[in-house]
Structures are given as C-alpha cells and as structure tokens.
Specification:
214 residues, homotrimer, 75% helix, mainly alpha, disordered C terminus
C-alpha cells in the first residue's frame, strides 16, 4: 500500500471534501462568518488532520499543502457550502452526516498512510484516529467549542474501529480497497448510531452521565 | 531569492517586532497578564506564524527558534510593550496598526520564503497568508477570542494580495525588494482601509451581515 | 548526554505519567467527560509537549508517537485517573502537585534533549520551557481555559530555572543525573511555593495586580 495509490487518494480527497463542506457550514451556522471566514474554516477543517498526520510521519511538506488537488478540493467544498448558505437553517443533519463521513474516510486513509510508512500497528491505528479527529478539533477550538472528540464518547471509538479494520486487513494480506470500505462503513455506522441514539461511552464511576452530544 | 537574503531577513524581523509589540499589548489590554504572560503572548504572536511556515516547508528547526535574532527581537518587542504598560488604555489604535504591519510584512516574507523553497505559485501565496495570520490566530485562541482571520473579512484578503504581488513579481523577474515593498504597502493599505471603513467581504446569501470587526 | 540515555528516558516518562494523570483528572473535574474524553485529554496533555519539542528539533516522527513506551505510560496514567474518578472532588491539590511535577520533569528533560541535539544554550532553555508548558497549554485550550503559562506568573519562571540548571550543569561538565535532580527539585519547589503563597510576577506598571492563580 502506497500513499500515492488511487485507493488512498480517493479516500483522502473524499474526506477532504466532506470536512470542507462540514467546516464551512459550521462556520455559517455557529459564527455567521463572511465568505473569507467560511472558506478559511472549511479549508482548515479539511486540511488540518492531514497536516498533523504528515508532520508526525515526517512527510513534510504535508500533502495537503504540496499537492494542489487537496487545496482545490478543499476550496471547492468550502465554496459549494458558501453558495448554499440560504439553506443553513436546515443544515444540522447534513453537518453531522458529513462530519461522520469525513471521520470515517480519514480514519481509514490515515491508518493506510501509517501502514505505508511502516509505523507500528498501534501507531497506525492512532495515526488514523489523529487524522480523523484533527481537523474537526481545530475547527472547534477556532470557534471556541470543546472538541467533539472530548465530549462525545462515540466519536473517537468509531475512528479506532475503522482504523483497526484497515490495519488488521493489511496485516492479514487483504487488499487495501475492501478493508478500507469495510472499515469506513463500520466507523460511519457506529458514529451515526451514536448520534441517533445519543449513546456515550461510560462516564466516571459515581459521577453521573457525561456530557451528551451537543 | 534566498531565505537568508538581507531583504527577507529585514522584512521578517520587522514583522516579528510588530507582532511582539501587538501580542504583548493585547495581553495587557484583554487579559491583564503579568510580565511573564505578557512576554509569552508577545513572543508566541511574533514567532508562531514563522514556526508554522517552517514546519510546512520542512525547514526545521524553525528559523524563529534556531536563529537567535528572532528570539531577541521578539523578546525585545514584548519587553518594550510591557514597560509602556501605563499607556495601555490608549493602545487600541497602535494595536490595530501593528497587527496590520505584521500581517503585511509576514505575508510578503512568507511568500518570499515559499518562492525560495520552490513551492508552486498557489502554495507560495498560501504560505504567505499562513505566515501572516498564524501568529495572530495563535494569540487569539490562547486568550479565547475567535481569530480575526475568521471574523474580519478584510484580514485574509489583504494578505492574499500582498503575497500575490510578491509571487507575481518574482515570476516576472522583478527584484525581491521593490515587489516586497509594493506588496506590503498594498496589504497594509487595504487592511487599514477595511478597519477604518468597517468593510467586510460578502456574507452568506440571505443571511444578513457577517460579524463586524471587533 | 544522549536522548536515549536512561536518565533522560526516566525523567521524560515520569513527566508523561504525571501529566497524563493531571490531564485526565482535569477533564473529570472541569468538563465531566466520559472515558474517551478523559483518556484523550490525559494523553494529549502528556504527549503534547514532547510532540512540539520534537517538531522543533526536527526529531520526527516524535518519540511520543514512535516509542510505544510513551503511548503506554500516557494511556496507563489516564486510565488510572479514570478508575479513581469517585475521588474527583478531592483532587484539586493532587492536580496542582502533578502539574508542578510534570512541569519540573519536562523542563529538565526538554533542556537535556536540546543539549543532546546541540542547539544553543538559550535555545536549550527555551526548549525545556516549551516542553514543560506545551502539554498543559494544549489541555487548557481544549477545555477553553486561558493557559496557566499566561495567567500564572510563577509557572514559566520555575521552568526557566529548572532548564537553566541543567544547561549550566552540562556546560560545566556535571553529569546529567545530578543536575537534572537539582533542576527539577528547584523548579518544583518554586512552583509549589508560588501556588502556596499566591505569588505572581510583577504586573504592568500602574495597572494593579495581574490575575491571581485560578
């Protein structure tokens, strides 16, 4: 598995597009920013996770900067979000779905890139999770929200599952594409189930429920 | 154009000084920090943009760390700000002017460094913008404000213009110094005009005005 | 002094454990997160400073990622904190003590690593301070607090003292272990004295007291 393979690139660019839309729409719902703010937040959400991933892997300059396709896809996603601004009041569900989609695609592509760089098994899983939650966490910090990875129990866990499937698949010699599809689908399903049923991971013993999903 | 050329160094150190003063005075106005807090925020504002720039370029260790002149200029700027603390109530305008100055100088120096590292044309412009807005965004996140690049339409745009002038100049064979002066002056003028007239980029369609400059 | 020497490793792993406990308990006190949020914040607090340090040193991938011992120690500290959650109401003092301990150990280990990479004397001290305050600052930003390094005067100063002792010791040919012990003990004592007596560095002239320790 090579980080320039078509499978990796399609997953990574699809995740970039999903997070660009998500970040830009979040900007319009939460902070009512102008076009520059909307596009900036969209691009940071889309490109932030890959930037952290590539810094950790010492794969600098990061692909999200040096490869024009990432910049173009992120900008396109943010602009599409901006021009559909009049629908912003109906965007709560699309924002959640796109966030789950970006999470799933980046968990899988981040883990694949880690495998390609021959980091350890645990490290590849962690790298998938960091890629998946990095951009959204940056988005949340910039608009002064506590990142979803901290408040929503079923946010990191599906990313762990998705990355784990891919890493296990690679270890067992399964081709990248099928294990990536299974991993991403599983991650997406768990995340959406968590959102739908308001499920959380266990809270501290004797301290009642943790924060529900916002 | 070489990133150790005198032109680059003067622009970059002048921007460092402007942001150190700006960050330190911001700390004193907004959060009333003590000398350590003031100097720390001043230095982070001054050195943060260059740190992100050099990480992206894989020019590590970052010049803002390994070159003592950056550390000395940033510390000096922050200390000058601290000892002039009794004037803090009159500092709203100087803070804005210094922010615009740092933005202009770093947009230009960041783009020049990108050109020196032979990144693509779009990448050099983006690198200028990241350098210009990076330190101030770090400052704003640390004191719990939404970064100006998100809320103020005419913050990223002048940085894009300044970086674009420098990159276009280099492409056309113009010497670094004149195009840097024109780019920085244009960036500064647009930013100050935006502040003065309260101009913003267009907001989302049908959603009313975006946030005004704070 | 080599960054894989036993002295360095013990200091660095002990600091990692202290910050993992501290970050996880902070999560439970301040934000009442569930197990994933608690472990995530604990690991970010524990591993964040070393990640920034190793990025600056161009020692990528960071040891906090590529060396499984850091991941294991950070995860263990966070899990220990989680299962002791029912004591969270009595944790204010342990949290402060662990924070001071992590600060002291990382100030010393960060400076030692800088010396090992043959950065300048001032740079080694700054690197110690960045390692010491980096993880805690990340923790504070993620839970929407102004980082202690900005609001608490006697937070950066003890880290400077601890790092300075180690760097001076190395310059004078003292072995790493004794100067590390003296540096860390001094840093810890100054920090705890500052907490106990509510001491702060001087505030801006004519502007009254800076924020007290939170």
């Amino acid at each position: 598995m090579n980080s320039t393979s078509p499978t990796f690139l399609v997953l990574d660019l699809a995740g970039t597009f999903a997070f660009a839309l998500n970040g830009a729409w979040t900007a319009m719902r939460v902070a009512r920013l102008d076009i520059v703010g909307v596009v900036t937040l969209g691009m940071m959400t889309a490109l932030g996770g890959g930037f952290i991933r590539d810094t950790i892997l010492d794969a600098l300059p990061p692909a999200t900067f040096s490869d024009w396709r990432y910049l173009a896809v992120a900008a396109a996603g943010a602009l599409v979000a901006f021009v559909s601004g009049q629908f912003a009041d109906k965007l709560a569900t699309p924002i959640l779905v796109l966030d789950a989609l970006g999470l799933s695609l980046f968990a899988v592509s981040g883990a694949l890139k880690g495998v390609g760089f021959q980091v350890g098994v645990a490290q590849a899983v962690i790298l998938g999770v960091i890629t998946a939650v990095g951009g959204g966490s940056l988005r949340d910090v910039l608009i002064r929200q506590i990142p979803a990875v901290l408040t929503s129990g079923l946010y990191a866990i599906p990313a762990v599952v998705g990355a784990l499937v891919v890493v296990a698949g690679t270890q067992m010699g399964v081709a990248a594409l099928p294990s990536a599809i299974v991993g991403a689908a599983l991650c997406f399903a768990i995340r959406m189930a968590g959102v739908h049923f308001g499920v959380n991971a266990p809270g501290p013993i004797g301290r009642g429920r943790a924060n529900a999903d916002p």
